[in-house]
Each structure stands twice: as structure tokens, then as C-alpha cells.
């Protein structure tokens, strides 16, 4: 079942169709002059016998080769993993992993009880995967790809330069299966074996059985007692929250201290998954969302593990998923399974938490006792500083819109997802005064090893509607017609993307078909190509009542990460962004848009809260903007900026817009030593200040979207990442 040999392969779209869809997606985002430049680039790309036809031929050949090897994946799989994840050097914690906040258990269990019940449920899910009894994922009557489930357990991502890799750990011949879990508590990691020996009867050899919930509770309580006695803790897990290049350096240094470190780290990396027993007790929605995203201290996490089950002191539960080889829909199936089993499982008695000794014949708990030195402790301290800077730089706004939900939207004869997408467009236009590139994730799991495609939410129809809403020059009837047209076009685009006929994955495949020595076609160096892939709005939805929170970080520094849950009676939004982007003010505009659209499309008038009946703030055009750096790369690009100040501190670096550029070596000199060896453990600036030196208000304008890419000596900002 996991091989999906019965599913079709991801198609290669028609070249003409893709480029026409691309042009339609560019037009509402750029000026008419800029659009004409893109038209010329596309026309050149499509010349008979030209580069476009040759790249399409190569891509079709690659797809045909793969289709001849049943069960070997799609033409996109390897490239997508590299582009979206393994070559991405930003922090897994803040910019790649996704999280869920799960429903509470109405029985009000303790932290230990809930950890035990949900852990056993996850183990049962794995057992169903192994024995083939897990029912197949379906979209109505269409079977979906199950391949991602093989990476839900015993899988770990590894930091490396220039790109990461992931290993799904399976035992070698003669080696026992990996059936242990890792447990994090107070910055320390413990190993708990989940299978115990069972004596055979009638001279049969002993077999193994899974731990009961009582036995798991006993072990989790023992972990807590052990952790409370540790005084000098080096919280190694915090290293995984750093940038990928920094984590790669730090991991190498850590392993070099003592051979035992590699042996112990391997136990963590081969574990089924990680259970984090957190000290926090998040109460509000924002507290819960932040706790699931990164936590208060970050020391109880290992962000390279396939997934982390987060159990807080007040028994609230979160799920944090490593995103490189699996998507949110796969994790959702596991979470629903765990919560369903939880409701049918008796809680272990609280007396388990008072037991002082573990029964010897049931095994014990093993602490991973790292061997460290001054350098490792210094690196841990630096990663902790990076973590706290990122936490301080970010804001989350949680909007629980419970006035109406999916049921009411359907009564208005609208697609609920397209409806919400247009609300996001209206909110952004009202707040920022413009339309910007918007990414919505569409699952392509009807194909073998399908992942996602990008729904480009901004269309000429959506732009016409939001402009008309703000100008107030149209009648309500005309506004409603414009809104319905925008919703209809988005729904059509969603259907095409789910079928594998989007824009972005096809263009990515064509670009990857270029040989290293070949010139890049004008289509891909056209500034509008970068501008329309600069995802100021990175959005995705999950629709299930069992999920209370859902989110991830923004993918560009002047953008928002918007996760939303479309439920029957409510719609939940989680908006993550840098503090400079004023996520809470954006949420006010989003709430207003939800009220306005309902009435515009014929819904009954709704009572509005006072805070959105007054004039809402608009986003100021800043004269300067300070954003945190990822501190990862020695080489970074400033396409439209150059250094303004010759003073380089260890906290900031200031640049201003210019088309002239500066001497590369001079910029490097201003950063300090350019020797790779001397720079090996040197922390680069923690933030960068962009200044509107021309006073024209174009700071952060997406006509120059590639703020930071590859310019020698200045660390990079995260950009062009994907949502779950």
C-alpha cells in the first residue's frame, strides 16, 4: 500500500498552458510596463525549437524514465525535496516545521496520563502501518498516496552543507527493530524501550509485547524524577533550533568531543519519535500556539525528529512535524487516530506517578549523558541566544472567528476555502494598500508520491474586487458579482492544482532541467519571476475539529504565515510574522473582511464588535525595518541593497536601497575577517536594518523582492520557503 504502484504518476503539464497561466498570475501583481517585459520573456522562451521546448523535452524524458520504474517516485520528488527543504538553510524550528495544537481531553487527565495514552496510540498507529491494516486515505472515491507514512517513524533529518539529508532508520540484518522512543524533560533526553519481553509458553521462545499505558506512565514519571535531580544540564536540543549551516558546524564539533556522543545521539536519531514533557502550562490561544511552535526555552525539542509529541504541564498537547518528507495532511491522519484512541482508552491510575522504582523485568529509562567541553557549551549558549532573538522578533495573532463557519459559507453558494482566501486578500489590500504574491498549498496526493502544488491566489478577478471594495465606487450588487467571480476563479485554480496542473512545480522542473553550463533563460531572470514567487502571504488550511491550533513561521521577512482551520461553525486563523509586520492589526482587518463578505454575499446582518467598527489602522510605509538574520551563510545576495554603514557590530548591519551596489570585497571587509577558518565559530550579525535611503517609500517593495540571496560576507534572511 505504501508503494502506491496502482496510482498514476504526476503529469507534466503542457508548456503553452503553463506559461499562459503564469502570465495570468503575474499580471495583477506588477505594472503594465513590467508585465510587457514578462510577456517578451515568455515569448522568447516559447520560440519554436528554442530553450523552452528543449527543457520541456528533457522533463518529459525524465518523467517517462521514472514511469518505467514502478514505485520509484515522481519526476518532481527529488528536486522538490532539495529545493524546498534540503538546500534551505534557515532554522527548522522557526521557518520549516509545522505544528498542531490538539483538542483537550474532557476527562482532565494529568500530564503523565495523557502522555502515556497518546504515546500508546501512536505506537498502535505504527503497528497498523507495519501489518498493513491501516485503511487507505481517500478523497471521496479517489485513493491517495500513502508513501509519506513511511517517514512518520524512525526518521531523522541531518544538517549538512551545502544541503541536508534525511534517513529513515531501519535495522540492518541481524539487528533488532528500533522500537524505542526518545523523551525530553528539562533539557535532557532519555531513551524508553516500548517493547518488553514476554515469556514463551510450552518451551516456545520468548516474544515481545508493547508497553501498556500504565507502564508508559510509570516510565514517564520516572523520567520526570530523574530530570529533577540533574543539576548541570547542557541542553543539546537547542542546537537544532539554529540555522542549518550553524547546526551542521555545531553537530560536527559535538561529535568530535568523544566517540560516545555519536553512539548516544544515534539512539535519539533512530527513535520512533520524541515525547516532550514540557514545564509550560499555556492557557490562551496565543500562548498555546507559541508553545507548540517553539516553546518558552526551546530546550525540550529536537527539531530534526520526524515528529515531536508535546505534552504540557497542564496536559494540553501539541504536535510538531519535521516537514522535509511529509506534509500536514499525513500528520493530521496520525493526530486524529491518536485522539480517537484516547477517547476510547482508560486513563492509567495516578498511582503510577507515585511509584518510586521501575520493575526490573520491564526494563528501565536511560539518560543520554553527553560528553561536552567548553566549546560545545559555548555553541549551546550561542544557539540559545539565537533562539531568544527569534522568539522576540516574532509575533503571533490568533483569530477565532466563531460568528459563522463552513456551514454558512456553503449556504452562500461559495467554496469555503476560496471564500477564506478572498477574505485574506481583502484584509491584505486594506492594510497594505496593494496586492502581493500569495501561496496556498494544494495537495497532489492522488498521484504516486505526490506532495503539493502552489495555488496562486491573486488573480485579476481578486484584484478587481478588492480595489472596488476599497474605492467604494461600485454598487453592492456589482461588488457581490466581483466577489463571486474571484471566488469562482480561485476554486477553479484549486481544482487544476490538485490535478497537478499548476504553475510553480512545472516551472521549477524546467529550471532544474538546465545544465550547469547553460545560460539561464530570460523567463527565470526576469524580476517579475522572483517577485511573484516572493510569498508575502504563505497560506494553508486544515479542516478538522480535532485541531485547535495550526501554524508555522512566515516565509519572507515582509510576509505572513497564515494557517487557517475551516470548521463547521467557526474559522480559526493563526498569523505568524515578524513584529514589524503588525500581525494583530492584520487580524483586525481579516475579521472585518469576514463580516463584510458575509453581508455582501447575501448573509444576514451580523453584530460587529466595537474594535472593528472604528477606522482600522493601515500599515505604515517604514523609513527603516529591522529584521533578524538567520546567521547561517557566509555568502548572501543583496539584489537591490548595498551597505550604508562601514561600522559592523555584532548586533546589526545597516543597508539602504540602491541600484549601484558596492564593492563585494569592501562589504566583506566591513564584516570582519573573511577567512573561513577564523570565521568558523564567529557569530554574524543578529539582525539587519533596511533603510529607505531615497525616501520614496519603496522599502520592502516586492518589485525588488530578493532582499537577500548571495552577496559575499553578509548573512541571509530566509526567503522563498513553502507552507505545509
Automatic annotation (TrEMBL):
GO terms for molecular function: carnitine O-acetyltransferase activity. One of its GO terms (biological process) is carnitine metabolic process. Residues 640-659 have a biased composition (Polar residues). Residues 639-706 are annotated as: Disordered. Residues 10-591 form the Choline/carnitine acyltransferase domain. It holds the Pfam family Carn_acyltransf. Its EC number is 2.3.1.7. PROSITE patterns: ACYLTRANSF_C_2. One of its GO terms (cellular component) is mitochondrion. It comes from the Eukaryota. The active site is at 323 (proton acceptor). It is an enzyme of class 2 (transferase). Keywords: Acyltransferase, Transferase. InterPro entries: Carn_acyl_trans (IPR000542), CAT-like_dom_sf (IPR023213), Cho/carn_acyl_trans (IPR039551), Cho/carn_acyl_trans_2 (IPR042231). PANTHER family: CARNITINE O-ACETYL-TRANSFERASE, ISOFORM A-RELATED (PTHR22589:SF103), CARNITINE O-ACYLTRANSFERASE (PTHR22589). Belongs to the carnitine/choline acetyltransferase family. This is Carnitine O-acetyltransferase mitochondrial. It comes from Dispira parvispora. The gene is CAT2_1.
Amino acid at each position: 500500500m505504501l508503494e502506491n504502484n496502482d496510482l498514476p504518476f504526476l503529469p507534466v503539464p503542457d508548456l503553452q498552458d503553463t506559461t499562459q497561466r503564469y502570465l495570468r498570475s503575474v499580471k495583477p501583481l506588477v505594472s503594465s510596463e513590467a508585465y510587457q517585459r514578462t510577456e517578451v520573456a515568455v515569448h522568447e522562451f516559447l520560440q519554436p525549437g528554442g530553450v523552452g521546448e528543449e527543457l520541456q523535452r528533457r522533463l518529459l524524458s525524465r518523467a517517462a524514465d521514472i514511469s518505467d520504474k514502478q514505485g520509484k517516485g515522481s519526476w518532481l520528488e527529488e528536486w522538490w525535496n532539495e529545493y524546498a527543504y534540503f538546500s534551505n538553510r534557515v532554522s527548522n524550528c522557526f521557518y520549516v516545521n509545522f505544528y498542531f495544537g490538539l483538542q483537550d481531553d474532557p476527562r482532565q487527565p494529568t500530564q503523565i496520563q495523557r502522555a502515556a495514552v497518546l504515546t500508546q496510540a501512536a505506537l498502535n498507529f505504527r503497528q497498523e502501518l507495519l501489518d498493513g491494516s491501516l485503511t487507505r486515505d481517500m478523497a471521496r472515491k479517489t485513493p491517495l498516496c500513502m508513501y509519506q507514512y513511511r517517514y512518520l517513524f524512525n526518521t531523522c533529518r541531518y544538517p549538512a552543507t551545502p544541503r541536508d539529508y534525511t534517513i529513515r532508520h531501519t535495522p540492518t540484518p541481524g539487528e533488532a527493530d528500533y522500537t524505542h522512543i526518545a523523551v525530553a524533560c528539562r533539557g535532557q533526553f532519555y531513551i524508553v524501550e516500548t517493547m518488553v519481553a514476554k515469556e514463551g509458553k510450552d518451551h516456545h521462545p520468548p516474544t515481545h509485547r508493547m508497553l501498556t499505558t500504565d507502564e508508559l506512565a510509570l516510565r514517564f514519571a520516572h523520567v520526570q524524577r530523574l530530570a529533577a535531580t540533574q543539576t548541570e544540564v547542557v541542553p543539546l536540543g537547542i542546537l537544532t533550533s539554529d540555522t542549518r549551516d550553524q547546526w551542521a558546524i555545531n553537530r560536527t564539533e559535538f561529535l568530535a568531543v568523544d566517540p560516545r556522543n555519536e553512539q548516544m545521539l544515534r539512539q535519539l536519531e533512530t527513535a520512533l519519535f520524541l515525547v516532550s514533557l514540557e514545564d509550560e502550562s499555556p492557557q490562551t490561544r496565543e500562548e498555546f500556539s507559541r508553545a507548540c511552535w517553539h516553546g518558552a526555552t526551546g530546550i525540550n525539542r529536537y527539531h530534526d525528529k520526524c515528529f515531536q509529541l508535546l505534552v504540557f504541564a497542564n496536559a494540553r498537547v501539541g504536535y510538531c512535524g519535521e516537514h522535509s518528507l511529509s506534509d500536514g495532511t499525513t500528520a493530521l491522519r496520525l493526530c486524529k487516530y491518536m485522539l480517537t484512541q484516547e477517547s476510547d482508552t482508560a486513563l492509567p491510575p495516578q498511582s503510577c506517578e507515585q511509584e518510586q522504582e521501575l520493575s526490573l523485568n520491564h526494563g528501565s529509562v536511560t539518560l543520554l549523558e553527553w560528553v561536552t567541553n567548553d566549546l560545545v557549551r559555548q555553541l549551546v549558549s550561542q544557539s540559545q541566544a539565537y533562539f531568544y532573538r527569534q522568539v522576540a522578533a516574532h509575533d503571533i495573532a490568533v483569530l477565532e472567528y466563531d460568528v459563522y463557519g463552513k456551514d454558512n459559507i456553503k449556504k452562500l453558494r461559495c467554496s469555503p476555502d476560496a471564500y477564506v482566501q478572498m477574505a485574506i486578500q481583502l484584509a491584505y489590500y486594506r492594510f497594505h494598500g496593494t496586492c502581493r504574491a500569495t501561496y496556498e498549498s494544494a495537495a497532489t496526493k492522488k498521484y504516486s508520491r505526490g506532495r503539493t502544488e502552489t495555488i496562486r491566489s491573486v488573480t485579476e478577478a481578486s484584484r478587481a474586487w478588492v480595489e472596488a471594495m476599497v474605492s467604494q465606487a461600485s454598487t453592492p450588487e456589482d461588488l457581490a458579482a466581483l466577489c463571486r467571480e474571484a471566488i469562482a476563479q480561485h476554486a477553479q485554480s484549486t481544482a487544476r492544482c490538485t490535478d497537478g496542473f499548476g504553475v510553480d512545480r512545472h516551472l521549477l522542473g524546467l529550471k532544474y532541467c538546465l545544465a550547469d553550463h547553460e545560460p539561464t533563460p530570460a523567463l527565470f531572470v526576469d524580476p517579475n519571476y522572483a517577485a511573484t514567487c516572493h510569498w508575502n502571504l504563505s497560506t494553508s488550511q486544515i479542516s478538522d475539529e480535532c485541531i485547535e491550533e495550526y501554524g508555522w513561521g512566515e516565509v519572507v521577512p515582509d510576509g505572513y504565515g497564515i494557517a487557517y482551520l475551516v470548521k463547521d461553525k467557526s474559522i480559526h486563523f493563526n498569523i505568524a510574522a515578524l513584529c514589524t509586520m503588525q500581525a494583530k492589526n492584520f487580524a483586525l482587518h481579516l475579521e472585518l473582511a469576514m463580516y463584510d463578505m458575509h453581508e455582501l454575499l447575501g448573509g444576514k446582518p451580523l453584530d460587529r464588535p466595537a474594535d472593528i467598527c472604528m477606522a482600522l489602522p493601515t500599515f505604515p510605509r517604514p523609513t527603516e525595518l529591522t529584521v533578524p538574520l538567520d546567521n547561517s551563510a557566509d555568502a548572501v545576495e543583496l539584489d537591490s541593497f548595498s551597505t550604508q554603514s562601514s561600522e559592523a557590530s555584532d548586533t546589526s548591519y545597516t543597508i539602504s536601497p540602491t541600484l549601484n551596489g558596492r564593492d563585494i570585497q569592501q562589504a566583506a571587509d566591513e564584516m570582519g575577517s573573511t577567512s573561513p577558518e577564523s570565521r568558523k565559530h564567529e557569530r554574524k550579525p543578529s539582525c539587519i536594518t533596511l533603510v529607505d535611503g531615497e525616501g520614496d517609500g519603496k522599502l520592502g517593495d516586492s518589485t525588488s523582492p530578493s532582499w537577500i540571496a548571495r552577496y559575499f560576507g553578509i548573512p541571509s534572511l530566509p526567503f522563498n520557503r513553502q507552507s505545509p
